[in-house]
Specification:
Layout: E1 11-14, E2 17-20, E3 33-36, E4 50-63, H1 72-76, H2 79-86, E5 91-93, E6 98-102, E7 106-108, E8 111-125, E9 140-152, E10 163-176, E11 179-193, H3 203-241
Antiparallel strand pairs: 1-2, 2-3, 4-11, 5-6, 6-8, 7-8, 8-9, 9-10, 10-11
């Protein structure tokens, strides 16, 4: 997926096609409109300014799952509730499996950005189609796949001319006898062309800054989400008990 990031309106380029938010009044669009762009309109790219970062993150925390009570697997079946606990910002359900989520503002480098992302959340069981590194003996997994995105808050001088983001995550419970652990794994592959206004920064220095900033941002968001999931699951058990 190849995208160019803009501010107003939200634009992105995907495989030579520009995706643009509809500006039609009184008509709510859940997806982006598409129209073709010829190769002559696309700005040539310099490979030496292409920066790529990959991040794999694994976290787990204790999870109390008393026997004979509502299990965490049952909790995962209520996907709208799980989405609200994991992503506390504004969200909109697009269809049975997909949500559009507006994230809080994030300080990244010297910028304050707020991504809007579309996430497909698929419930999987019996080891079929599990994300990599998820054991097949896990009884239920929520597979999170980012399908679209938009980035706001970047001044035009600091916008990458193109960017590509691919992200996939998983939420599940792993049982060890009477004990359980809440597992959350996330993989992000990011590549973009360094903006002209920042090409004075050595590429290796820029790469190090992006890697450290991305890792800190992901860990902060993920750990807070895990704490909220444990707290909401506890509330879920109490509600089922009543």
């Amino acid at each position: 997926m190849l995208y160019s990031i803009t501010q107003q309106p939200g634009l992105c380029v995907k495989n030579g096609v520009v995706l643009q938010k509809s500006h039609l009044k009184n008509q709510k669009m859940s997806r982006w409109k598409c129209f073709a762009v010829s190769k002559s309109q696309q700005k040539p790219r310099k490979d030496q300014n292409l920066l790529s970062v990959s991040l794999r993150s694994f976290s787990d925390i204790p999870l109390y799952e008393p026997q004979g009570k509502a299990s965490f697997d049952q909790y995962l079946e209520d996907k709208p509730r799980v989405v609200k606990a994991t992503f506390p910002g504004k969200s909109e359900q697009l269809n049975q499996e997909e949500w559009r989520i507006e994230t809080p503002k994030i300080e990244f480098l010297f910028l304050k950005i707020w991504p809007t992302i579309d996430i497909k959340i698929i419930s999987k069981t019996s080891g079929e189609g599990y994300p990599s590194d998820v054991p097949h003996n896990i009884t239920k997994v929520l597979d999170l796949q980012m399908t679209n995105w938009e980035l706001n808050g970047i001044h035009r001088d600091y916008r990458p001319s193109s960017a590509n983001v691919c992200s996939r995550g998983a939420i599940y419970s792993k049982k060890f006898g009477i004990r359980s652990r809440l597992k959350f794994q996330l993989q992000i592959n990011l590549s973009f062309h360094i903006p002209d206004a920042l090409t004075f920064v050595p590429k290796d220095v820029f790469q190090s800054i992006v890697e450290k900033g991305l890792k800190a941002m992901v860990e902060d968001v993920k750990l807070k989400a895990m704490d909220r999931l444990v707290e909401d699951y506890c509330a879920f058990r109490k509600e089922k008990k009543k």
